[in-house]
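ugh ok fine here u go
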Amino acid sequence: MPHLVFCFSSIDTPGVISRVSTLFRGHPDLIVGFNTFLPPGYKIEVQANETISVHQPGQQVMSLSTALSPPNKTGQGSGVSTTGVGGK
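structure:
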């Protein structure tokens, strides 16, 4: 009988947000609805140009600039960038 090997890894809150944003790509209402499950101080906003901003407590704002666009040929959305606190 074959043996199954499971690898356990941890993921931080911004990583979960990134994965959820990819999973719900094209459905901004579902992405924003995920705020319900985030720890206090975290907030996801989807802008009119489909840029996703992630507010983190006491940290920089993370921007998933094209997370709602179709994936590229490698199956990945494009980049993640950060800006200063308050979007500066």
